[in-house]
Specification:
Blueprint lengths: L10 E4 L7 H14 L7 E7 L5 H14 L2 E8 L2 H10 L4 E5 L8 E7 L8 H11 L16 E3 L3 H10 L12 E5 L8 H8 L3 E5 L18 H10 L3 E5 L6 E4 L5 E2 L1 H14 L7 E5 L4 H9 L3 E5 L3 H11 L3 E3 L5 E3 L8 H15 L3 H4 L8 E7 L9 H14 L3 E7 L5 E8 L2 H21 L1
Parallel strand pairs: 2-3, 2-4, 3-6, 7-8, 7-9, 12-13
Antiparallel strand pairs: 1-5, 4-5, 9-10, 10-11, 14-15, 16-18, 17-18
Length: 450
């Protein structure tokens, strides 16, 4: 069955344009509410959001949909995606909803759904919701005396902060650490700095003044330049950058140099291996992770299993095969001993724990391997399927032959926007740049001809 609404990470689109409209959100609430009813008890849904202006609109529509079919709603307000997943479990809710477009600009928004265990829904469940969305609304409504209630959870922030702190050893403190944190004017703008402060760190906050329009704008994990500059300016020990919904993190060392998700996963994997905590003898990453990470882990006797891009594929493989560390180069890391989805704050705390226990500077702790030259370019298209063009296929085949066994090539359409992503890496940077350029040029010609 063709998916009409759901993509690789829930429903996402331009706010107030199909499918990210109040009407669709209302139908999602009614359909999902009916699907998750199981028994005669009062059913509950937890709803969180980031700081986008359109979040008010989507939230109100979802509340209307859920209550109309007899579901009680717990409203969290602006909270990180992983906090929504955690509180769904903690509050014994039947499902959770996060309103966010993650690292996208404010114009976009999205709806992510979680089951009672805090995991993102399967393709099968999303298709069932889409099927119910096509039914006449009147068939889903409950009687007047069974309409749901909406309640705001005032203690949500405190509960999540305490949960995050408990992932560390009880006696571990961050005293003496000067930390700059960039919250991207997003969902973590209150909880993340407060958690670090409660652990004893000296906290300098940036990206903590959301106005509905500035989320991810020249800040956060996708634009860490301001963080790098602030760390150097204040001679801080470390910088932490979250994205709009705080499910991913990148870091900056004391010299102002960026540390990506691959390096952070290497730190956590080695630390957990040394403590006997790493499960399944390795970690799970995506096809985008650097070959340098794979070689480094092999040197430790660990494996790196690659999945398609998307945290849901990482989590699926982790659950199926017993891994407890996985993630993406972008900084979306899943530590399943603690969380069911990526958690930027908890991932950052794990790195800080290694820094504190080692007594070494971040530049030494988080520089575990030398990255191979890796180039990623995006080619935008408006219609057609440029990857099916014969000249594009020829350019791709030629690139694979030229790279041989000394490099990797990954070409994929984005799951969230109309672009083709072309990534190549290898020992020879000149060759890597050449093959990426050739493929992108072929894709541009195919897109123009469509």
């Amino acid at each position: 069955m063709t998916r009409r609404y759901f993509g690789t990470d829930g429903i996402r689109g331009l706010a107030n344009k199909h499918p990210m409209t109040s009407e669709v959100a209302l139908k999602v609430g009614m359909a999902a509410g009916n699907l998750f009813k199981n028994g005669g008890h009062r059913h509950r849904v937890v709803i969180g959001k980031d700081t986008r202006l359109s979040g008010y609109m989507i939230e109100s529509a979802l509340v209307s949909g859920f209550t109309a079919v007899g579901i009680d709603v717990f409203l969290l307000g602006p909270m990180p995606t992983p906090a929504v997943a955690m509180l769904t479990r903690s509050l014994r809710a039947d499902m959770g909803v996060m309103i966010s477009a993650s690292h996208n600009d404010y114009e976009d928004n999205g709806i992510k759904l979680f089951d009672a265990d805090g995991y993102k829904l399967s393709d099968e469940m999303e298709l069932k919701i889409e099927g119910l969305m096509e039914q006449p609304s009147v068939e889903l409504l409950v009687a007047a005396d069974r309409i749901g209630r909406a309640t705001r959870v005032e203690s949500a922030q405190e509960r999540y902060i305490e949960f995050a702190k408990r992932t560390l050893q009880r006696n571990l403190r961050l005293d003496g650490l000067r930390v700059v944190i960039d919250c991207a004017h997003g969902a973590g703008y209150k909880v993340a700095p407060l958690a670090l402060w409660e652990l004893g760190a000296e906290v300098i906050k940036i990206g903590v003044d959301p106005n509905g329009l500035n989320i991810n704008h020249k800040c956060g994990s996708t634009a860490p330049e301001a963080l790098c500059e602030k760390v150097r300016e204040l001679r801080a020990d470390i910088g932490i950058a979250l994205d709009g919904d705080a499910d991913r993190v990148v870091m900056v060392d004391e010299k102002g140099a960026l540390v990506d998700g691959d390096q952070l996963m290497a730190v956590i994997a080695e630390s957990w291996q040394r403590r006997g905590r790493l499960a399944a003898g390795g970690i799970v990453a995506t096809v985008m992770s650097n070959l340098g990470l794979e070689r480094y882990l092999q040197g430790l006797g660990l494996t790196l299993v690659r999945t398609p891009v998307g945290d849901r594929y990482v989590v699926e493989h982790m659950r199926k095969h017993g891994f407890n560390v996985g993630g993406e180069q972008s900084g979306h890391m899943v530590l399943s001993d603690y969380a069911t989805t990526g958690d930027g704050l908890i991932s950052a705390l794990q790195i800080l724990a290694v820094v504190v226990s080692s007594g070494k500077p971040v530049s030494e702790v988080c520089n575990r391997f030398e990255r191979l030259p890796q180039i990623l370019q995006n080619v935008r298209y408006s219609e057609g399927r440029p990857l099916e063009d014969s000249k594009v296929r020829l350019a791709i085949d030629s690139a694979r032959t030229r790279l041989g066994k000394s490099g990797r090539l990954v070409i994929r359409p984005s799951g969230t926007e109309p672009v083709i992503r072309v990534m190549a890496e290898g020992d020879d940077e000149t060759l890597v740049g050449s093959v990426v350029g050739d493929i992108c040029e072929a894709l541009k010609r195919a897109a123009e001809a469509a």
